[in-house]
């Protein structure tokens, strides 16, 4: 019988702020039930000296299989948007608010269907995100999608009301103060009506350029 999950990942997060050590420790996390069905944990990826951190919602089907963040269709779209925005991918650290894939199984077919993480799961996984933030200490933090934004800015935060604004993190238990920007998750561009995707993609690129401008003004 699997061990009963804890209510938070805090007890599984080591004191070190070495990213490789954090990633290794995350494989043993049982801070919520999602580890029971996911193939593996998907930790963040990128340099500890990255000046920009991008945070999404959770791993998808491809990420769950490979163990690497943003390698599926949304990740490819994000890579394209970063190029269009003139942002060097080597300067970016990417991760998710939740480190395990939450999904449902279809009645037909084999492809697992993404399911939005609940608030309990987001809060349970937050210690990992805070540890990554403390390890990387980026100049700019970009929260992509409502789940990512609400994980650090509060459950009442409304992303659409604050796109294009320079924001600050509320008081947290870390001595880290990046400029914060919000945008949609790249997957929302892919899910939108075909006739709207070009406009949505351009808006994503614009948001990334805005975020990069926050770094440049420091």
What is the rounded distance between the termini?
A: 52 Å
Q: Which range best describes the helical content: under 10%, 10-25%, 25-40%, 40-55%, 55-70% or over 70%?
A: 25-40%
Q: Which whole number gives the mean pLDDT?
A: 93
- CATH H level, superfamily name: Uracil-DNA glycosylase-like domain
Approximately how much beta-strand content do the residues carry? 5-15%
The name of the CATH topology is Uracil-DNA Glycosylase, subunit E
Count of domains = 1
CATH level-two architecture = 3-Layer(aba) Sandwich
Q: What kind of sheet is the major sheet?
A: 4 strands, parallel
**Which structural class matches the secondary elements?**
alpha/beta
Order of helices and strands: HEHHEEEHEHEHH
Structural commentary:
This protein is of the alpha/beta class and 218 residues long. It has a single domain (10-216), classed as 3-Layer(aba) Sandwich (Uracil-DNA Glycosylase, subunit E), CATH 3.40.470. The protein is built from 7 helices and 6 strands. The strands form 2 sheets. A 4-stranded parallel β-sheet has the order 2-1-5-6, sandwiched between helices. It has a two-stranded antiparallel ribbon with strand order 3-4. A hairpin with an 8-residue loop joins β3 (103-104) and β4 (113-114). The model is unreliable at 1-5 (pLDDT under 50).
List keywords for this structure.
single chain; 218 residues; alpha/beta; Uracil-DNA Glycosylase, subunit E; 4-stranded parallel β-sheet; disordered N terminus
